[in-house]
Amino acid sequence: MFGLFKKNKTLPTFAPLKTDMHCHLLPLVDDGSKSLEESLESMVAMKEVGFDEIKLTPHFQYPRFPNVESDILERYKNFLEEIERNRGDRDLPKINGISGEYRIDDGFGEHIKRDEILTFRFSDPSKGSKKGFLLMELSLHQPVMGFEEVMFERQMEGYDVILAHPERYPYFDSHSSRLEQMKEQGVYFQSNILSLDGFYGEEARKKAFDFIENGWIEFLGTDMHNTMYAQALRHASTNRKIIQLIEKEEFQNKYLVEDK
To answer: Domains along the chain?
Structure first.
């Protein structure tokens, strides 16, 4: 399937976004990259399609990926050093920070108790909440009871909440009243670029475009996991409908701060 994509000319379609704020390229911590080399190859593709910077967002999902922030930060530090030792002449986007993709599940409360949530921020200090953006996801199968309250509580604690890829949740339709309520509550939404190219199926593709038309999507992300995703991203960069969308819409990715 993806071998056919190599016939298409890769385009820097996503350059207006500047920053990818959702990817899983920290090796061996979740279902993303399995090696340094796979991360490097995926990053080459991300640079080719126009991303100058990326933020890593490993899963925090209990019990499947019971990651702890302190361990992730140590792995992140080592990862940056390994990249510099092994990049060679590859043209790579800059990794400018790490946060997390937090699943609302039975283990999420422990992250809140430790008060070590990994977030990112707008470059303008006058914009956004004091604790930064908290990227959150739901089950891909069925809704967790009370997830709206969990998000609202995080907002009251000083976080900006981003709901990852709402188009991938089968229990929301294009005009979901629950999603509309979350928008009214001030929750940001992030769609996956690959959803727009049909990578997750026709239903997710249609909903992603509908949500953007609704004015519900502030961020786009690659949700990059591995080299298969990288090849799919190259293909998405040649999709005329996506190219026109990026030219027309203004997303908030480019306003995110570079972590020091």
So the answer is: 18-255 (3.20.20.140)
